[in-house]
């Protein structure tokens, strides 16, 4: 492959940031097609261009920042920020090639030399402080473990695997209970958790923790998205506040986008995310592909073109460098886990047990054991076990914000895990074994509320949409892996039963219709909590026994002398509700099955379940589970004590309670903004996502087409409410309407369906959770006396909500009579009609807003108010597609009014000169300001302080 940079030197020059690249071992960098080794990012235009190396050499470099690679270029509004890797930790080596975890990043503003210099200086101080801490405060559990943040030999490979036997991932230590950490280690917490501690409650990490911390404490100095003041020297927040301040000086506050208001928090989150030890890279090994599918040796493709885009997490951020032709500056990052452990097996010879029908059981030589105590003359075999988990960028996000499947068949929390068994020196003449597993959410449309400890799943969408997404998901999996064995670990009772039954139902439907290209999909429903009741998690071995034939059929991959001798023909796809805790225990069991069979192929019979010296295997898998759990739920995995020790006691249960409380806090507070940031960093949404977040303090799912959902609601409503076959359907729209009928500003507003036929207008209150019509009101066209459209401002709390051009709506005024009807769906034989809904409008002053109503008898008139939904859609991903724009909200509302008037005139059979449609304000901005009280501002400010 072309030469990839191994080290960057970043200098703030007068016109822009200069990035100078070094090659392997500090040699001169040589990119593809004589690619330049020095490039510049212009402060004004943000253009990336090549500059002569002499330009770099002429600069004063004493304030230069050394970097191990680029995360990318983050652009927000008119600002851009270079994100570079300032610290790394070697966590593994594969075929002699080092694999690193990103330990810290610097966020450098590309706005001016002064801003860039200040950020570079802060980043250098941060690295120096971290290096000094690493020297003065060694790891108590592993004092010989030295971080390579201050490496001098760039890209060096360990001299031998023994030297780095315990150079593990930062998570690769047992997570003790929260109670132990609080009592014994005096963990430093945020103010919120400190208050809990003062009340003698369980101590929690600072909310929003994203990464595992140094081994001395699982929660110490957790990089959390708390609402505390950031520490001095926090580069991300400092440059963000400066950017907002300078922007506000140039323009008025009212002209600012919410992206600028939230910029400091976005930058802080970005820094914490990429510094969380959850991102990995290698300069000359493709971490995104399995061992037997490496493609770097095929031709001279740049690394970013060789990797699997499904696991290329910073693709959007490095695209400016790719588009400018500087391919070797694009360093792909993998989110997930990489862990490695070398172990030695003493295998007794067969003749040492004469007359025995079974092969003698081998023994692991542990670190505290003396090899001389092992069976006499037992040959020793050294092996290396590597675990790589790859988290998909398709349907990314955090726990309750992303569940189930999207329109393209991608599922939430999809992670491919590869277990590689090799010899330490990767001698090609020895077998290398690879075993793949996959976890992922149930491939159906469903959601769960984050406001409950045990939320009940709610199914969504029509059967046709679920069938389509379900089939797409498994066809894509089959294309990647071959045959599929689905394993569901959810309960067969309670709230999980419903989604489990639907999983089984759609599997049967798929198989009845030909399966996956003629191959049936196998589903094993293993009630984990029922089978392992009483904390007997060892009963998961029953699941392995049930699938023994399938596991033997699928096998694993064997590679020798660069030739694939055997290839894995199928994949086990495991899920529970979160695809975290129960899934981690089950995948560890499947990994154990694979490892035992692979060692048996090497002539070694080893029982990992009954041998205490194999504890490291459980710890490695537990660390993997913790990593995936932190990335999806912001805490370590539950049941981690069993995965590590094969034992379960009250201390593990207490630890799980603390983690559960932490998850609950994150679910209802931090995860909303975290999800918006993740979607933005991956390029799935535009800056409009921050406007959406500021209004609702949450965002929509870009992977699910809102247009399809709304069209489905319109179609469903038509089938239910239009009872007369003689009525011709003319149009349908989704609108916002006050929750209380016959009012203009009863909060909160609901999204309803407005239908138009040649005889009536139907206002349908739609249940979006169950895809059913809760109630509808039929308004006969002959009873409509007036239609008014115009500005409809219902809140002034944000700039978007007070924009008169975007907040528009219509009011339909009609005579109350026998031809109109209101029906409520009670799901019984009785159709209820609420008497209160038929009463005239309350004396709340809203009638005064409609001037033409003055002098009329209110008792005979009613009205329905409808507000246009925002037409701006934050979706921008090329994969998901963008919603075409260009249609103004006011034009859309005017068109609806015209359609209703034409239907009225056609029904009367005559033309009248006087139009019933009038363009006038419904609620003007001035009126909205008068009606927005102090309490409403206070409630919003409190919510924003908590959620944003």
UniProtKB/TrEMBL annotation:
Skewed-composition ranges (Polar residues): 123-133
Q: Where is the HSac2 domain?
A: 704-861
Q: Which UniProt keywords apply?
A: Signal
The record's annotation in InterPro entries points to:
hSac2, Inositol_phosphatase, SAC_dom
| GO BP: any one term | phosphatidylinositol dephosphorylation
Annotated SAC domain ranges read: 270-634
- For this entry, the protein name equals Inositol phosphatase
PANTHER family reported for this sequence: PHOSPHATIDYLINOSITIDE PHOSPHATASE SAC1, SACI DOMAIN PROTEIN (AFU_ORTHOLOGUE AFUA_1G15890)
Q: Does Protease appear among the keywords?
A: no
Give the domain of life: Eukaryota
Which residue stretches belong to region Disordered?
123-174, 203-235
User: Tell me, what's a Pfam family for it?
Assistant: Syja_N
In its UniProt record, a GO molecular function of this protein is: phosphatidylinositol-4-phosphate phosphatase activity
Looking at the UniProt record for this protein, which Gene Ontology cellular component terms does it annotate, in alphabetical order? endoplasmic reticulum
Q: Which residues form the signal peptide?
A: 1-23
The Acidic residues compositionally biased stretches are 134-143
